[in-house]
Amino acid sequence: MAVLAPWIVLDPVLQDWLREDIGRGDRTSGVFQKGKALSQEAQWLAKAPGVIGGLPIASRIFYLLDPNIQWEALIEEGECCQPGQVIARLSGSSDNLLLGERVALNVTMRLSGIATLTRQYVNKIADLPVQLVDTRKTTPGLRLLEKYATQVGGARNHRLGLDDAVMIKDNHIAAAGGIGEAIANIRDQIPYPLTIEVETETLDQVEEALKHGADIIMLDNMSPDMMRQAVKKIRDRNPRIKIEASGNITLENIRTVAETGVDYISTSAPITRSSWLDLSMKFKG
Q1: Per residue in 205-248, pLDDT tens?
Q2: Which is catalytic among the residues 169, 232, 273, 282?
Q3: Which one of 16, 71, 130, 223 is most buried, counting C-beta atoms within 10 A?
Q4: Do the beta carbons of residue 234 and residue 117 sit within 8 Å?
């Protein structure tokens, strides 16, 4: 189940987005309203097939503008929609519906696009004992929501930030002088229960990570054959160590990677390569 950050965390972000779009006021709708608070009913329509994500956030955006706006989602988060399908109904002050329309649609289209592509990746490996995870390649300011969207699509979150876990990558290894030195320098300084993950590119590096007690070993940009050898080496030595594959994961090769026996496959693709899912809001005549 996808877990959304609490509103005390998200509300300031949503309010900033509204302030950015509204500026000094709506110079179009106000002309027609002429100071009258007109009530209006509206529908949200899907214009393309995909997985819906972000409706609770859209509802919250309208609530922040006007608590009296009524919102009814007609589809569950993570469900698939079809073109022409009504996915939500709302009613309330027409000026406030128009004030929130673009921000609410934008975030829902963005998150639904991520959820849609994530689901395609997940479906490729759904029958195998491996899980898809996301990465920190996110849009600045949108990480919590983009990672929420990958959950909606069926993936799990990798670390949210640098403080979530230790991940020793190629530049850390170079700076420390080796995997062993990097692990030794870090292990006594991190709080319990943070784990240590090591990025490896060769079988020799896998051996060094095993020797120095890494909790998770990432196989980065390895060929499927090398990956299978690495998985066997790790499983024979310590079956409790988790194994992650990463690097240039695509819809075409993800199943081959999954069949090597890794526990996790990490990729930024659902976030960095997804297109927005086209949605629109229409007033009822």
Answers
A1: 999 999 999 999 999 999 999 999 999 999 999 999 999 999 99
A2: 169
A3: 130
A4: no
Residue entry with tokens 């608590």 = 67
Which residue in the list 101, 134, 215, 220 is annotated as catalytic?
Answer: 220
Cis peptide before 193 (omega within 30 of 0): yes
Q: What is d(CA 78, CA 81) in angstroms, rounded to the nearest whole number?
A: 9
Active site residue 102: yes
Q: Which of 19, 137, 235, 273 is catalytic?
A: 137
Predicted confidence (pLDDT) at residue 160 exceeds the cutoff of 90: yes
199 is catalytic: yes
Helices (H), the chain: 7-22, 29-33, 55-65, 94-124, 143-153, 170-176, 179-187, 203-211, 224-237, 254-258, 269-272
Q: pLDDT tens, 262-281? A: 999 999 999 999 999 999 99
Amino acid at 115: A
Q: How many H helices and E strands in the chain?
A: 11, 12
In this prediction the pTM is: 0.96
Tokens of 13: 């972000």
User: What's the pLDDT band for 30 if we cut at 50, 70, 90?
Assistant: low
- Token pair belonging to 88: 């939500």
Residue 146 is among the residues annotated as catalytic for this protein: no
In tens, the pLDDT along 55-70 reads 999 999 999 999 999 9
Rounded alpha-carbon distances, angstroms, from residue 8 to 55, 68, 242: 18, 20, 34
Q: Which of 95, 101, 199, 208 is catalytic?
A: 199
Nearest to 68 by CA among 95, 108, 106: 95
